[in-house]
């Protein structure tokens, strides 16, 4: 258990700036851009993602600490490094992890106005804020912290392991406006979350005894689904069960993506989307643990009453259970998906070329584009914003590149790059975010990548 | 195609030149988890009246005992290396008081006892610290009960049961933990 807690502590230092796929957004008409904006413009007849390979994305990063802070070779002991790290982090620091693997994906053009796309992907999405008070108490104990209130409100985390079955439509309204929508069915294999906790633990100089310990206004609610089998009351440990539950076997939910692309002029384009506006209703294999109340402990008050028979401890234990009870239940609950908002303004310029489209026509396009993108994801403590500027270059009709510079909570020097290449029907794409970090991964705050292979038919 | 070559070169360059400072992940095996946990323990306040039995006969010793389940926690039991017992005592009585603190097993067997704490009459600021090295006193980990015995000095003059002077005792216990991951 202590190892798990320690690993979690370490993981808190390696946070992922997840889900902001700023290089992919609006890039090269890739099928995967439809998952970021269902109104992305496409000009092919149909596409098929190579199963398990069409879309893989993962992002790992850290807002403040880096690997070398803990594992670097220097004159400090590992205990000194851990203490130094814990002191340097704040409760607003967080761990985020998001990995998506497309299992199946495809799409086809219904007519000149409508393109349908669909697929199934697995996603692991996790966020955990750094509970500084809890970790300080765990690491150092309460002895050196008289009068300090250790707060339970810093305990905020959420982990989802889900499968997403989706189908969407991209509809060209006119030459200027394209709109899109995608309906999603979420199947949650695992959810662990806690939020809106409150309460403090404080040790003070006592009046009746040397110390008094206070548990004040404690209200902690830990929710899980898919972790404990309701019938056997045993932890579900079979990986196959989790994987199986991601395909409509787990707790179900629904969600919606919507988006639009609007050509303000021939060269100026606005696009925006809202992704994962939805929820999951957890009612299978639910196990919730709640602790609520107040408790004051001053020690054992000896009365020297011969009739007491030394029952002080039992009396305190009983009072603790009555005043600060911990209960378990199987009540269903709703978990909202982390909704994302994307917006982009793109100005195209450069050489004007033509490309061959699905309907045997040719479409003009500019070889270069610059623009700005705004990304926001709603998270438990606060929304997380990122602002990106980008330069996009079409090297040929089949080869496109994009460079990004992003400012977010973690970095002011995040440069990303991506390349999409079409060889016949085969499309390959790869994107790397924060490429400067590759100079020294030990001191990297974040690295991320997205890779995939599609078959695209014009 | 020149641009493509450049871009491909740059991407490849970043991948190839990506490197890392020397890292030693085995350091984590040297990590010692060393929290220091402090808790209030026993306390009491007695007046002369409590040193008389129901027949009004002066008693020279009173005692009380409580269960103590601190060592039933396996984490503390397996990793505590030192225990500090702190006491602060105020003796308003006009005679010395001796406090004996004893750690007992489930069957009331004596596992550890402090050197008797002798508090002079009218000493209002007596402090006491007992450090228990667990490695040389392993039996203390079997403690299931704590007993306190308060003895008053027999001066030859009985106490006045209506006297309002007090004898006050406060204590805490501190566990020094050292645990590997």
UniProtKB/TrEMBL annotation, chain A:
The family database entries (InterPro entries) matched by this protein are listed as: DUF5723 (IPR043781)
Pfam families the UniProt entry points to: DUF5723 (PF18990)
* Domain DUF5723 span(s) in chain numbering: 38-433
Q: Tell me the domain of life.
A: Bacteria
What this protein is called in its record is DUF5723 domain-containing protein
Taxonomic source organism: Polaribacter porphyrae
Q: What is the lineage of its organism?
A: Bacteria, Pseudomonadati, Bacteroidota, Flavobacteriia, Flavobacteriales
């Amino acid at each position: 258990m202590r190892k798990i807690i320690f690993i979690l502590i370490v993981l808190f230092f390696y946070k992922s700036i997840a889900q902001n796929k700023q290089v992919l957004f609006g890039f090269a008409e890739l099928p995967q851009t439809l998952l970021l904006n269902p109104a992305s413009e496409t000009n092919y007849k149909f596409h098929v993602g190579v199963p398990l390979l069409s879309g893989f994305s993962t992002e790992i990063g850290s807002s403040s600490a880096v690997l070398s802070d803990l594992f670097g070779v220097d004159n400090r002991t590992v205990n000194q490094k851990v203490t130094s790290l814990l002191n340097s982090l704040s409760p607003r620091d967080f761990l985020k992890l998001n990995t998506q693997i497309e299992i199946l994906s495809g799409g086809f053009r219904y007519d000149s106005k409508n393109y349908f796309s669909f697929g199934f992907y697995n996603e692991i999405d996790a966020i955990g804020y750094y509970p500084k008070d809890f970790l300080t108490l765990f690491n150092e104990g309460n002895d050196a912290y008289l009068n300090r209130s250790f707060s339970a409100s810093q305990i905020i985390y959420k982990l989802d392991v889900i499968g997403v079955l989706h189908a969407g439509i991209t509809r060209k309204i006119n030459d200027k406006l394209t709109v899109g929508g995608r309906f999603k069915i979420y199947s949650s294999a695992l959810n662990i979350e806690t939020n809106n906790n409150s309460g403090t633990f404080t040790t003070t100089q006592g009046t009746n005894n040397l110390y008094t310990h206070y548990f004040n206004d404690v209200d902690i609610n830990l929710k899980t689904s898919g972790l404990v089998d309701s019938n056997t009351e045993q932890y579900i440990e079979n990986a196959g069960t989790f994987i199986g539950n991601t395909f409509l076997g787990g707790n179900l939910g629904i969600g919606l993506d919507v988006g639009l692309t609007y050509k303000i002029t021939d060269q100026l384009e606005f696009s925006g989307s809202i992704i994962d506006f939805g929820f999951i209703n957890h009612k299978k294999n639910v196990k919730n643990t709640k602790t609520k109340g107040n408790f004051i402990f001053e020690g054992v008050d000896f009365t020297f009453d011969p009739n007491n028979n030394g029952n002080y401890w039992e009396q305190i234990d009983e009072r603790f259970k009555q005043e600060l009870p911990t209960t378990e239940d199987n009540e269903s609950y709703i978990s909202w998906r982390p909704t994302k908002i994307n917006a982009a303004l793109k100005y195209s310029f450069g050489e004007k070329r033509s490309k061959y489209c699905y309907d045997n026509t040719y479409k003009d396009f500019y070889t270069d584009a610059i623009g700005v993108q705004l990304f926001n994801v709603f998270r438990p403590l606060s929304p997380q914003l990122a602002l990106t500027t980008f330069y996009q270059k079409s090297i040929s009709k089949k080869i496109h590149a994009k460079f990004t510079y992003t400012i977010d909570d973690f970095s002011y020097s995040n440069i990303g790059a991506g390349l999409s290449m079409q060889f016949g029907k085969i499309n390959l794409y790869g994107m790397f975010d924060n490429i400067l970090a590759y100079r020294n991964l030990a001191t990297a705050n974040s690295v991320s990548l997205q890779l995939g292979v599609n078959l695209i038919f014009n | 195609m020149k641009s493509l070559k450049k871009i491909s070169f740059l991407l490849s360059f970043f991948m190839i030149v990506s490197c890392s400072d020397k890292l030693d992940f085995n350091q984590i095996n040297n990590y010692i988890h060393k929290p220091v946990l402090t808790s209030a323990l026993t306390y009491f306040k007695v007046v002369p009246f409590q040193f008389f039995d129901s027949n009004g006969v002066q008693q020279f010793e009173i005692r009380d005992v409580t269960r103590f389940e601190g060592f039933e926690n396996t984490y503390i039991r397996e990793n505590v290396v030192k225990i500090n017992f702190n006491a602060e005592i105020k003796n308003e009585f006009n005679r010395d008081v001796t406090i004996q603190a004893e750690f007992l097993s489930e069957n009331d067997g004596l596992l550890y006892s402090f050197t008797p704490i002798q508090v002079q009459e009218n000493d209002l600021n007596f402090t006491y610290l007992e450090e228990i090295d667990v490695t040389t006193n392993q039996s203390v980990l079997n403690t299931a009960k704590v007993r306190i015995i308060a003895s008053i000095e027999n001066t030859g003059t009985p106490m006045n049961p209506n006297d309002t002077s007090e004898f006050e005792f406060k204590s805490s216990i501190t566990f020094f933990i050292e645990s590997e991951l």
